[in-house]
Amino acid sequence: MIRCASLLLCLPICVHAAHPLISDDAATQGEGGWQLELSGDYTRDRDASTRQRVSNATLTRGAIDTLDVYLNATWLRAEALDDSGSVLATKGAGDVSLGAKWRFYSADGASLALKPFATMPTGDHSRGLGNGLPFYGVSAIATYEYEAWTLIANAVGAYACGDAASVRKRQWALSAGLGHAFNDALQAVGEVVYSSGTEPDVNQGPALLTLGLIYRVAPTFDLDVGYRHGLNKSEAHHGAGVGLAWRW
Description:
Blueprint: H1 7-10, E1 34-44, E2 50-64, E3 67-81, E4 87-93, E5 96-107, E6 110-120, E7 135-146, E8 149-160, E9 170-181, E10 186-195, E11 207-218, E12 221-230, E13 238-247
Antiparallel strand pairs: 1-2, 1-13, 2-3, 3-4, 3-5, 5-6, 6-7, 7-8, 8-9, 9-10, 10-11, 11-12, 12-13
């Protein structure tokens, strides 16, 4: 099995967020609103022996003004060098997740939300394309907006049903993000994320820094680009990604 170059991109707790960030904000689509998000990310480990491409498609529906439901699907391609220098490659569909986001508080620029989710083991774990177990969890999300600045904090926990020696059953992640709007169209974003990782025998969880830009082409259409840098040896050395969001 080819090991993921980026542990955080493989985490079931990080499959649906505000790209290019792994963190999510408390905003919802509003009753009857739809959003389609498409993104692609590339990562490489520190010795360039493992590379991975992850594509995500997320469809979100606003059930009521304060409640969204969503479905996320992934596609992965991973490459690794064996001891002889030959390239081993695998590709295919990853795990599918579904969930909801409930914004239960919003006042004076501050918003709080809860996001329960479930990740189904639809990917082939033996080929490195999924976690191999169903995961259930919840995210606690806090957002604060002040003038051109936005602060985001997430705390996420997930639990796997079943038993697999190669997957950590209890997973978690903590993140803090910051955004600055230069104008109505352009926003710079950044975050720091620390997590438990997916492997039970790794004591130091992966940590990373993300920096990115979001450009609003039209009121209903955004483009984004981001760069990720691993802050310790448990995370991939660096990565980059692009994405779009279309609302109607």
